[in-house]
Amino acid sequence: MPPITMRQIVETDGELLLRDLSCRKGQEVEVTLQVEDADEFPLSTGRHLASSKLVGLWKDRTDIGDSSAYARELREKLQAPRYKQR
């Protein structure tokens, strides 16, 4: 079987959720993580963002009703005072 490559953003420190993998119960898998520094990625323009894999990321999620409202809620939570860096 060819290797599976996924790119994700860590949402909770120390946790990463892997879903919809093409492996079955009982199969042995090896997981290797390559953590990239955020400083390595320059700020992108809207055009770069629109052509990235982020657009449509949630299209098949059944647990998110209105993805625009969900994204807005996440942004509001991240902008709340308790999340701001010191």
Descriptors for this entry?
2 helices; mainly alpha; 86 residues
Total of helices: 2
Strand content is under 5%
Q: What spatial form do the alpha-carbon principal axes imply?
A: extended
Q: What profile does the largest beta sheet have?
A: none
pLDDT averaged residue by residue:
79
Name the helix and strand elements from N-terminus to C-terminus, one letter apiece. HH
N- to C-terminal separation?
A: 46 Å
In terms of per-residue confidence, which ranges show pLDDT below 50 for 5 or more consecutive residues?
Answer: none
Described by its quaternary structure, the protein is single chain
Please identify the structural class as seen in this structure: mainly alpha
Helix content: 10-25%
- What does the radius of gyration come to? 16 Å
Extended strand count: 0
Secondary-structure map with pairings?
Blueprint: H1 46-50, H2 67-79
Brief rundown of the structure:
This protein is mainly α.
Written overview of the protein:
This protein has 86 residues and is mainly α. It has a domain of 40 residues. Helix content is 21%, strand content 0%. The chain is built from two helices and no strands. The longest helix has 13 residues. The radius of gyration is 16 Å and the shape is extended.
